[in-house]
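SEQUENCE WITH STRUCTURE:
===
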Amino acid sequence: MKVLPHLFESNREWATEMLRKDPEYFSKLCDIHDPDYLWIGCSDSRVPANTIVGIAPGELFVHRNVGNVLPMSDINAMSVIDYAVNVLGVKHIVVCGHYRCGGVRAALEGSGNGVVALWLQHIRLIAEANIEELNAIASFEQRWNRLCELNVVAQVRTLSAGDIVRSAWARGSALSVHGWIYDLRDGLLRDLDVTADRAEER
């Protein structure tokens, strides 16, 4: 007896539908893994990367974690970035946060326990570094949203200052690092205008 049989049934229905639309869908997919984009996003189930940018599997390499955080000490994230840049040769890295992020809220409120609290310390430090700006915002909702943005900006800066990206730029690679944010309320992405594509733009 299968556990979670409804998910297996949904999978069968999806695979059948893909084959109905294109009988060679899966055989073609096996030969495609040449993405131009690395997406670094939040684990939030409401922000599925491929879906919100409307591109097919095989076109987007994806890494997600709570709060889309990129500490240089995270070997998982750094391995993904290294592979994307140095093996796949992606041309764009998109760090994408989202408004109403639960991880960012927990960091802002100082809540959370266990390992997640340790992880969110990275975002708490961003809040502390921007405390005057955040305290000047009267509305909690707006303050929360602003920290979501500031977190993305900080991750773009961290990534752009790291050895993987700097080495790619030194080799002359056409690599850009972008900071975007997704709004759950309207389904739209917004560019935070912090794109870096040369070492001097860090």
User: Anything to note?
Assistant: Strands lie at 37-42, 60-65, 92-98, 176-183, 188-191. Residues 140-161 form the longest helix (22 residues).
